[in-house]
Amino acid sequence: MIKKIIPLTYLLTYASLSMASDIIRIDKQSCPDDYVYVSLRDVEAERNKYCLLLNDWDIARINNKASLSGPGYGCKVIKHDTRHLGTSLCKLIDQEEPQPPKKDMLKVAYIEVNDNPIRDAGCFITENGKPLFDIAVIFAANINYDGEKAILHFNPQVNDLLENNIHQVRELQAKGIKVVLDVLGNHQNAGWSCFANIQQARAFAEVLKNAVDKYELDGIDIDDEYSKCNQEYEDSLIKVTSALREIMPNKIISKALFHDQRYFETEWQHKKLHEQLSYGWEMSYWAASCNRVATYLNAGMSKEKLGIGVSTVITPPSTAKAISTCLKSQQLGGGMMVFNVNKHSESFLQSIWPDVKADQRCFNE
């Protein structure tokens, strides 16, 4: 629903604003609580409709530092507008938690973008011509330490993808594949388990949200490895995921699971880790049984969120096939995560799903 409303001033309270409309024009540089900028993707798809929300000589801030001008300026979109703008187009945050795609089994591809393009995740198709994978994970960004706080770091390959080849992400999204950014430690005094208080956790959550918004990604994947914290805190993960869920209520927040049961048993402000996660994939790639998720089930995580990971370079194809069978029998909604998917993965994937084929033209685009 889109409505044009009277331009708002600072005298109008956010409480009354939140009930006004799903999409609003506001005379401010930023959106109020419970609202986010309208996405560049949405504006480009229906530019005239959004333009009609604006006054003739408005220039409004939208997502990803872009802007949309009013009818008097011809409804023009500027994709990178660094000016200070006094008007914004904002949309109400969808409070519904993301649901698993309605398929027989969720299928997730981790792509090592140091060596392979993210588009590879969309190049494997089923017999009906649809993409095999539901989620593609960019592996990986890092949590670095700048001497004072945790920061988000992109190595050259991740940076090149997000800054120069973002069209590959858009191609996957156009195919219906969600694209998520994996974030892991980098041998520094910063990491998912290093946040001593909620202020630190919220600050890093905002950094992640800014990246998700800027590149129009579908969420964040947590890989709590390779950090060298001066001190770890068992409630750190709950703090930062709670902060993320507050500001990204309709995004995927997933986790690679490995010997971290203690974090699921910990409670912070009556919250538990499993409540904040969309999915979790257990990544003991050499283990053949689905029983490795039992401890997470016992900690309260639902079957709908849990899945199993396999690796194209570690897991024998026969083991991967056995895991696929037990995933179905145990009705684990998180499905199967496949690590290190690339253009050479066809035979491994066919050992699990015989009808899958690689579209060779896709790899060469």
UniProtKB/TrEMBL annotation:
<dbReference type="Pfam" id="PF00704">
    <property type="entry name" value="Glyco_hydro_18"/>
</dbReference>
<dbReference type="GO" id="GO:0005975">
    <property type="term" value="P:carbohydrate metabolic process"/>
</dbReference>
<feature type="signal peptide">
    <location>
        <begin position="1"/>
        <end position="20"/>
    </location>
</feature>
<feature type="domain" description="GH18">
    <location>
        <begin position="105"/>
        <end position="359"/>
    </location>
</feature>
<dbReference type="GO" id="GO:0004553">
    <property type="term" value="F:hydrolase activity, hydrolyzing O-glycosyl compounds"/>
</dbReference>
<keyword id="KW-0732">Signal</keyword>
<protein>
    <recommendedName>
        <fullName>GH18 domain-containing protein</fullName>
    </recommendedName>
</protein>
<keyword id="KW-0326">Glycosidase</keyword>
<dbReference type="InterPro" id="IPR001223">
    <property type="entry name" value="Glyco_hydro18_cat"/>
</dbReference>
<dbReference type="InterPro" id="IPR016187">
    <property type="entry name" value="CTDL_fold"/>
</dbReference>
<dbReference type="InterPro" id="IPR001579">
    <property type="entry name" value="Glyco_hydro_18_chit_AS"/>
</dbReference>
<keyword id="KW-0378">Hydrolase</keyword>
<comment type="similarity">
    <text>Belongs to the glycosyl hydrolase 18 family.</text>
</comment>
<dbReference type="InterPro" id="IPR017853">
    <property type="entry name" value="GH"/>
</dbReference>
<dbReference type="InterPro" id="IPR037015">
    <property type="entry name" value="APT_N_sf"/>
</dbReference>
